[in-house]
# Entry
Amino acid sequence: MRRVAALLAAALLAPALAACGGGGAEPGAPNGATLVLDFQPNAVHAGIYAADAEGDFKDEGIDLHIQEPSTTADSAKLLETGRADFAIMDINDFGIARERGLDLVAVAAIVQRPLASVIARDPDEIRTPADLAGKTIGVTGVPSDDAVLDTVLRSAGLDPSDVHRVTIGFNAVADLAAGKVDAATAFWNAEGVQLRQMGIPTHEFRVDQFGAPRYPELVVATRANTAQRASDFLDALQQGYRVLGKGSQSALDALLGAVPDLDRQQQQAQLNALTSAKAFSASNEGGPPTAMGRLGRYAAWIEWARQNGLVGKSAEEQIDAGFAYPGARLR
# Structure
């Protein structure tokens, strides 16, 4: 970690960030920018919509277009082809995209702890990770899900082969509700909330409580050659998370105002789960929500991901190769 800190300190000698936006616009006119989400709009994006509703992006000279993805693979593709300026990405998808050679950079983190978990259907029978031995556990087929399951199992001294693993895609809620699997990898803030609303008793094993570090789940990514445009965008984004910190209701109203088809009760429950778990706070002890990432948290994820075969390079190598842009005020 000392080596990582030294690399960051050296990088901070880079030139100051340029203003967000391209040339050609009238003086004083907002510059257009597109932000593609990682998924359909939901409670994790409340700070983004709060900043938009408050006019924070326009105050920074940015005419922001928030775009929903058609698939979870959209973010990397749209960034790579220049059809998006910024993208919200699951950190695992971001790291894997970089492994494939895409020149992407993380400039912020909007969810400061993992959302991944193993959710068990019968909390009386499965009370600890050790109770998963011999059970049928559903995974999506995404490599990071296997890493999450393996981490939770190893926290109890189990081998990954000690469970019967089946690929169920993104059907965790339906399969758990029907009793087709004993447990499944899923997000505690989404599927976990939905199962509780359905009245299905569950037990959650959140990965950062069972072997994984507290790493940022969702990052703001951009192309390396446009990272210097991030400063004004991040200033506006940070304002949105300050709104969230003052009261989640106004941020929820901004989300539902922009996307009225969302179910208020469900989004309120998801936002309550996130805020009670301090998912938007950079500190384990809580504190104000923030859109800023921390270098140490990125490095902790890299090492965990490397141990689980998701990435090949060490934290030092990744930071040295520009994994996170220093101008994002990583601290």
In short: Residues 50 and 251 are 5 Å apart (CA to CA). The chain has two domains: 2-114+215-328, 116-209. The radius of gyration is 20 Å.
